[in-house]
Amino acid sequence: xTKRRARLLAGLSFAATLVATAASAHEDRxxxxxxxxxxxxxxxxxxxxxxxxxxxxATAVRTYNKSAAIRWSNLPIALAPRVGxxxxxxxxAQTAAAKALLQxxxxxxxxxxxxxxxxxxxxxxPLDNRGIGWDPANYFVAFIGEPSADKxxxxxxxxxxxxxxxxxxxxxxxxxxxxDGIEPVEFKVxxxxxxxxxxxxGAMRALATAxxxxxxxxxxxxxxxxTRGSTPDGDTNFPITYPQxxxxxxxxxxxxPPAQQALVRAAMxxxxxxxxxxxxxPLMADYSTAAALAQxxxxxxxxxxxxxxxxxxxxxxxxxxxxxxxxxxxxxxxxIHYHTIWRDKLxxxxxxxxx
Amino acid sequence: MRRRGLLGLALSAVLAPVQAWSHAMPNSTVVAQLKxxxxxxxxxxxxxxxxxxxxxxxAADAGEYVLRxxxxxxxxxxxxxxxxxxxxxxxxxxxxxxxxxxxxxxPPDSHARAARLRYDAVTHRIASHFVxxxxxxxxxxxxxxxxxxxxxxxxxx
Lengths: 355, 157
Fold this sequence. Notes:
heterodimer; A: 355 residues; alpha+beta; eleven-stranded mixed beta sheet; two-stranded antiparallel ribbon; 10 helices; B: 157 residues; six-stranded mixed beta sheet; 3 helices; 43% strand
């Protein structure tokens, strides 16, 4: 890695002060959160907007409506242009304000994931022969609606392999849709080793392995991507339809032994812990009630060790919907990369725009 | 020829946004048009997905393959007679597709009202694949449905 690239990555990193999480230690990790919720998030959002030049502010804030809310993608920016201000265009003070905004809306685990996904784009950048925009600078912050103490608004953080949609003052606490993915799966930048999705992949691998002897967990068909993701035009299929009833959804949580049930809850937590605790705690509490878990299913396809493309795990509850898929790597089909999505059947975009 | 030209132009607009993948999987598109005595259908199947669904089956069999995975069923439960009239490879916005045309003939003593289209080409095997179904009205394509397993059918307007 060149010194220039190392400086760029260090300058862009929001989690430079965080201790790197070892892949083997993620089971016991604690995701710390700064004060969050509507008030601190709104204050941090205002401070960030105040740090911007007028033209940047105009770019950052979009009208609160469905067409703006559903505009996000997992594709590189040349294939799916983003709205908002580009993180790579921020000066030092603006970057600090953006960091404070993320700390009031994400947990330390969420910030670390965002940093890792962007660092992976730094690895891909020299390989971007098609000019599709693999670059840690190509991540955008936008507000759907003016950040307010009482009116609905959303924070959108969007770039290749990450799309965060955090909505405040809406009908429901919401951190979804949340897409994350990674390529390469493991890499080093300087002396630091990264495996940004290790907690999520590890949880899903443990779950799929435990269910490998449970035929009812096997989903019909083959999977080549998440099924409830976005198109290059955004989340144009929203509102999303989901499987109903008990067929085609895998094995019921209630049919699993306690040890496997614990793996399901742990896997759910690896996504729900990414937003700030003020958001994640009520969501996890709702997803984990006895009534909710009694209606939760787990489905798997492909290889239980998630080593091959087509390996797939899905958690499907009355609200929660998580998909994890292994795909061939874009830069080298002999390698793999991950796509995942967390949706909330009730509370995507805060429960707005569903009709 | 004029019809194919118009359809091609219209589909270029439809397919462009959904086929500009860098590493995700392109979807299929189906365009249906009711006509006197039946229905014309054109299916656009990405060859990469077609191969995945057929274990690399030869593209030359695409017409027969689609015929096995499409039906129109009238309100009286009878299926309409079907025939693949063309199957050819093409490229749409950089994505290699098979374009398969199917003609359906309605039984003479039945009507089109409440008929249903069943279609599960590729989706019968690739659970993450989806099919955008449109109705052709002149030069316009009107979205009808997004089919993804387990959904395989929709009412024809």
